[in-house]
Design goal:
The chain is an alpha/beta fold. It has helices at 16-26, 37-50, 87-98, 120-125; strands at 32-34, 56-62, 65-72, 103-110, 132-137, 140-147, 150-157. It has a seven-stranded mixed sheet with strand order 1-7-6-5-4-2-3. Helix 4 links the parallel strand 4 and strand 5 (132-137). The chain is globular.
């Protein structure tokens, strides 16, 4: 997956400790996101609809609150084993964010036959930009933050809305 721009200004060249401090200042709780239960259900539905291909899309919201998902076409030449979010969907999402819409918090994709954790391909393609990744697999959704030292698990809650 190629990402053209992080969801908020990301200071390049920080050490692992400096990145952690920057992230903590940027978000109320960088180790947790909130997502409505209906969106968790939508992520499962997108994964089921795309199987045996990988589903993919964009996580939108503000701060650490995921408020919407934006399904996107998987344009990778091997969609059963890899994903690449349609560049038009990314451009549109970033344009909307610049215009006052929800921010691009991260991305989601499914592992049709695997666990909801970053694969070696995910790790190799990650931008280390602080984005949230939601991975759907084996009937679960897990959230991860893509930082300079790799992916770290992120907890989530489903507030009543």
């Amino acid at each position: 997956m190629s990402v053209t721009r992080p969801h908020y200004p990301f200071p390049r060249g920080l050490s692992k400790d400096s990145f952690a401090l920057w992230l903590a200042d940027t978000m109320e709780d960088p180790t947790k996101v909130t997502i409505p239960a209906r969106l968790l259900g939508a992520l499962h539905a997108e994964a089921a609809k795309a199987a045996p291909r990988e589903a993919c899309g964009i996580l939108l919201g503000n701060g650490h609150d995921i408020e919407r998902i934006s399904p996107a076409a998987n344009v990778h030449s091997e969609p059963e084993a890899r994903f690449e979010i349609d560049p038009r969907a990314l451009i549109d999402a970033y344009r909307d964010a610049r215009g006052g819409g929800p921010q691009v918090l991260g991305y989601y994709h499914s592992h049709p036959a695997g666990p909801p954790e970053p694969s070696s391909t995910d790790r190799a393609m990650a931008a280390a930009d602080g984005s949230i990744w939601a991975i759907i697999g084996l009937g679960r959704v897990e959230f991860w933050r893509d930082g300079p030292s790799g992916f770290v698990p992120v907890g989530y809650s489903c507030p009543a809305r």
